[in-house]
Design goal:
- Keywords: Cell membrane, Membrane, Protein transport, Translocation, Transmembrane, Transmembrane helix, Transport.
- With 111 residues, the protein is α+β, with helices and mostly antiparallel strands.
- It has helices at 20-55, 106-110, and strands spanning 62-65, 70-76, 80-86, 89-94, 98-102.
- The chain has 2 domains: 19-56; 58-110, SH3 type barrels, CATH 2.30.30.
- The protein contains 2 helices and 5 strands.
- A 5-stranded antiparallel sheet has the order 4-3-2-1-5.
- It is elongated, with a radius of gyration of 29 Å.
């Protein structure tokens, strides 16, 4: 008999709680469903909204890019756009880098 180490009792091999396996399966399925509604579904929704925003771009739109540059769209093709950011300053960006379409007249109010 030792005063410092408590004696350990091993669980009998082969015995399990009734319904324990089904509980684990339902727990894993429930965890996946929870993860889907917390992480996957909102991300897909944001991705779909961004795709619609990029495909709806047109000449004359005022936009903000993901890098924070504000400009007016002067030319578009399938993957690229040309922004006028100042007098005689045009910059070419990929369309997917548009962060937001600004209301008309925003650039005049800021600058």
């Amino acid at each position: 008999m030792s005063f410092f180490i408590a004696s350990a009792h091993a669980q009998e091999a082969g015995t399990s709680q009734p319904g324990g396996d089904m509980f684990q399966i339902f727990f894993l399925v429930g965890l996946f469903v929870l993860f889907y509604f917390i992480a996957i579904r909102p991300q897909r929704k944001r991705q779909k909204e961004h795709t619609e925003l990029v495909s709806a771009l047109s000449k004359g739109d005022e936009v903000a890019t993901s890098s924070g540059i504000l400009g007016k769209v002067t030319a578009l093709d399938d993957n690229y756009m040309v922004l006028t950011v100042a007098n005689n300053v045009d910059m070419k960006f990929q369309r997917v880098h548009v962060h937001a379409v600004l209301p008309k007249g925003t650039l005049k109010e800021i600058g």
